[in-house]
Amino acid sequence: MDKRALGRTGMNVSRITMGGMATEKMDQALADKVFNTALDRGINIIDTSPEYPNSELLIGRAVSHRRKEFFIATKCGDHEKDYRRWTRENFIDNLNSSLKLLKTDYIDLWEMHGLAPGYLKGGENDETIEYMKEVQREGKIRHIGVTFRNGNPTDDQYPGDFSYNAIKEYKNWEVFSTFQVVYGCLTRQCEKAISEAAEKGKGIFARGNFRNYFPWYHRLFEDAKLYELFDGGEDKSSFMLRFALSHPDIDSIVIGSSNPVNIVKNALAADKGALKSDVYEEAKRRLAKRGAMPK
């Protein structure tokens, strides 16, 4: 699978990132198969979180013996009782636990999980930021990133506006090397903002590419007749993945699966690369006519 520079991190990452959320559907035997299949297929970065039940444990047991073959991204701010807890003490607990469960001495990318403007009382000098810089100097983490929340359907910023507003807030924060944003052909709010962040040197992950955020959501795809633009042998999920990869400033797409067959299928779609430029522009035109357009 093609690799791409992740912003200014010096990490060359596969165009697909293996997401760890689907581990809630796995036992250890399946996790072994899923994550080894991903590595065998050329996916060289795994993204997980302490919040995903048993995810770090299962991943550590499954592929820690192949640690030199992949980058590991995990998150902080997660807390077993609170949705998030933005304190130095909680971040210390998160890191110690992640290192132990993942069976590693360092985290390649440590991401603040679901950050939104106003969450950090101390801003760029918050105690959590200072702790992240401290452990970065110690070599326990290599790079610092941030993921932006989806919210839920009752939130007026759901699903993509949280990412849009967070990019505007955090793109000038030098501490963050990467952003993970909600983006896809049906969630285009951040399309221009992603490029603004990339101009600042941020590496960009896109997630939520296939997610059905609203019951009517995927009707946008049908209403825009995007199926008319398929290559031979293409299907809806392949087209959606390749649409996201066509954005010039997206480095990798986070996709989780508990099915090794789907991992291979997604890898094959990524191997086809970006859509042809005329197809990409036509898809954007059709989507914009139906309201799916960037801000």
In short:
By secondary structure, the chain is α/β, with parallel strands linked by helices.
Provide the fold topology:
Elements: E1 3-5, E2 12-14, E3 16-19, H1 28-40, E4 45-47, H2 55-63, E5 71-76, H3 88-102, E6 107-115, H4 127-138, E7 141-148, H5 161-170, E8 178-182, H6 191-199, E9 203-207, H7 219-223, H8 236-246, E10 252-256, H9 260-272, H10 277-289
Parallel strand pairs: 3-4, 3-10, 4-5, 5-6, 6-7, 7-8, 8-9, 9-10
Antiparallel strand pairs: 1-2
Helix pairs in contact: 1-2, 8-9
Structural summary, described in words:
By secondary structure, the protein is of the alpha/beta class. The protein has one domain (3-215, 236-274): NADP-dependent oxidoreductase domain (TIM Barrel). Helices cover 37% and strands 17% of the residues. It has helices spanning 28-40, 55-63, 88-102, 127-138, 161-170, 191-199, 219-223, 236-246, 260-272, 277-289; strands spanning 3-5, 12-14, 16-19, 45-47, 71-76, 107-115, 141-148, 178-182, 203-207, 252-256. The longest helix has 15 residues, at 88-102.
Low-confidence stretches: none
The topology string of helices and strands comes to: EEEHEHEHEHEHEHEHHEHH
As for the number of domains, it is: 1
Mean pLDDT value: 97
Distance N to C terminus = 32 Å
For this structure, the quaternary state is: single chain
